[in-house]
Amino acid sequence: MPLRLTALAAALMLAGSIHAAERIKVGFVSTLSGPGAGLGVDIRDGFNLAIKQLDGKLGGLSAEVIVADDQQNPDIAKQTADKFLKKDKVDFMTGIVFSNIMLAVGPTVFENQTFYISANAGPSQYAGEQCNPFFFNVAWQNDNLHEAVGKVVQDKGFKNVVIVTPNYPGGKDAVSGFKRYYKGKVAEEVYTKLGQLDYAAELAQIRAIKPDALFFFLPGGMGINFVKQFVASGLSRDTQLFAPGFSADEDVIKAVGAPMMGMFNSSHWAHDMDNAENKRFVADFQKEYGRMPSLYASQGYDAALMIDGAVRDVKGKVEDKVALQKALEAKHFKSVRGDFRFNSNHYPVQNYYLRVVGKDAGGRITNRMMGTIFTNHADAYASACRMK
Amino acid sequence: MAFYRPARYQKPLVIVLLLALLVLPPALDAWGQAFYIGFATRILIFALAASSLNLVLGFGGMFSLGHAAFFGAGAYVVAICVDNGISDALLAFPLAMTVAGLLALVVGAISLRTRGVYFIMITLAFAQMTYYLFVSARVFGGDDGLPLAGRMTLGGLSLTGDGALFYAALGCLVLVMTFLGRLAGARFGRTIQAIRDNEVRMEALGYPVFRYRLVCFVLGGALAGLAGALLANLTGLASPNLLQWTQSGTLLVMLIIGGVGYLYGGLIGALVLLCLEEVLAGFTLHWHIGLGLLLIAVVLFAPRGVAALFGKGNG
Amino acid sequence: MTQLVFEQALNGLQFGLMLFLLAAGLTLVFGIMDCINLAHGSLYMVGAYFVAAAAQAADSFWIGLGAGVAGAAVLGLVLELSLFRRLYRRDHLSQVLATFGLILIANEAVRMIWGAQPLLLNPPEALSGPVEIGNFSYPAYRLVIIAFGLGVAGLLYLLVARSRVGMWVRAGAANREMTEVLGVNVQGLFTAVFVFGAALCALAGGLLGPLLAVQVGMGESVLILAFVVIIIGGIGSIRGALVGSLIVGAVDTLGRALLPTLLRAALPADAAATLGPALASILIYLLMAAILFFRPQGLFPARA
Q1: B136 in contact with A at a CB cutoff of 8 Å?
Q2: Which 28-87 residues of chain C touch chain B by CB within 8 A?
Q3: Which of B202, C93, C127, C145 has its CA 20 to 30 A from that of B231?
């Protein structure tokens, strides 16, 4: 028990006089290599852009961001997180893309009483019974974007749907989210291996079923390959594609190009949203990195702003965990997605929008806002959360 | 390769080393480097895993490229035990060893019918089979693996603290090394080494070669299962990555760097490789290039591993 | 239903032929030189990167493919002359260690040069859609891959079965010492075979690039499959490699496509959903274990 004792002693010593930290250390673990790398890179770039705009500071204190690649491997992520927490003694952690990695790393972070600001992974576990005071999600709960697609597919009157998703918790959350609002017939649920790149066998199966709509959730490189192969096999004429925003954002559009046209997708953010924060973010991001920001980038950006606002609110006294938690819950920042609030489980209550891939005024293929699907939508698990 | 015989200077060296290891956790803690207790535990566990491979490869002469299957199986058994409310290591660890050993029995019984590269490949294939079985079965958590709700207890003692787990791993390693040392000098060890060196002659002398090999293979598998059980406690996760063939490759690399067939080969190899990783990774993200070059250099210039550099009387 | 079966059969054929490109080089290096080359998959990866980089530079897939394959052949030559030549006479342990080292170097070098994110390689514009014959449609690019695979298989057959070099290669695989004694320049033969194997790897990598993704680590998973193929077929035998590839391609594709459906007919839905994917993914390994159990030397052993 030596570790626990020292931690307790340190806590007791600190309780009397909490000093403001001199700088803020953020441990950023993300998937920066392999097929899921595009997501992690966008989150990182969005996060860094915010810090750059804040003159290298978070809440007025100089910021140090330690970045590490988890290689989409829970073991490596966990080892890295251990190092960040115990050796580098970071004040915040963020960056994880995939829910399975989040679930592997979470317990270590919470045990260390360090706040984790999720800029992507929003597993149902942490939204419901296992909700934790040290976990905040600034993006969405995994189901949300899928629920929104389910609603659209239902409202548009499709009757025969095939679902394709990888066999991992994020994938299963996607199916349950979609089916929560889509009540028609699901002809087949196809589960692929996470990281699978060749979908020939699955596409043949789909061709045999002849669905009128296909809902897929395949983040990163998987989605790029799937859409490309879907179009190459000639299925796009009879089957309408639907996807959450993850599978139809700038990273995928850039890789797939024209075949994406006309694809409907859902998101809590869009690059053409009309608010001052968003305009500045989109313009600066393009200037800095020479490409359009994706929703991942917007989430990374918001995560940095969220930390900034909370640290500013507690005047740099990040050791006062209770005050810091309150400050985080109160959301002291303006999000690029417009206004939202945190639910009792530390997940957002926010609007979800319908987007379609098409050409903008300049002839570039990109997403266009079509309308609102949900207003002030909360996730389905919050009621099971008893936040301590 | 000649028979294993312990060198004379080994005993005092081992005792000094053990004493140093005993005071390591409090020392690191006092120094404010508690993070490295976990790191040291990882070295001990991998030393154990590499030593179990040493029994199969170094002493038994069976070039298995599927050792990760048993390592990973041990981890999964522990995770399943915790899931089902068995959190005493005194129960779970032997169970992990039994399951890993049984798996090794099945794999070995089929694989040992083949020779040479075929043996290498069929062990590899069995390991891949185990990997895919765990990855695709949802009861085992699929791609995510099985997280442990918490660390186990050893008898009445909790392994939750990093120090406690360190001592548990150290204890296991000392027991296993003593066992392996005894075994290598005993009748069974001599026979298995003789089979490694000249199978035909041993066959002609009437030794049941297949059975000896199989027993050796199963023992190695069971010990790898023990290492896996410890590792699951350290990382809090039984992950399919433990079963991947590159994991077998890593264990092999450790063993070869350390010295195949030397009692302490696995131990030295785990220490060298993990420390190298820790140091090099601090300098550059691209440290794998350095490691790759090192491996090739070892093959070309020091083909018998680090242990051979000190190991007179063994070779 | 005919469409489904036919389409899946083509998928299996396409997968099998690509495996053959990889397995052909591997089985020869393995069979003739008795050398375990774990880095064979790395040649596939590096070849794919060469093709992708050249295709981007030249803005043409076909020029990229040619340049990439040539580049991989040169790399193979360099590797053979500098490293592999020293490994042939060493034990399997040394070969595994050195080529494992090569994998690490290749992965990291690629990451340094081209970054950690996958490269995009698009098929030629004309081939990006489906081909339609009556009611049946199939991606055009996959048909091209099948044509390539069949072409190379035919060429290899002529080369190995009909030419003088091929005779040496077969002789080398059957009995290396005897071939040497008969005055064949085995050293030169080894180099040629290795370089040829590297070029085939790059061809497979380049052709599959547009379908899959050109990324770090793409070689490892395919390497294992190539090993399975040559074990099933018999080490050192080109014919074995071809048959083995087609078997693995067919079993894997059909297993993935049909097993879930078949199991659902036989078992309760819950059990079928759990068992289906698990069984499909281990099917080829089960097959390999079964074949080795009955024929430990594979289907077409090169050595008598």
Answers
A1: yes
A2: 30, 34, 36, 38, 83, 86-87
A3: C93
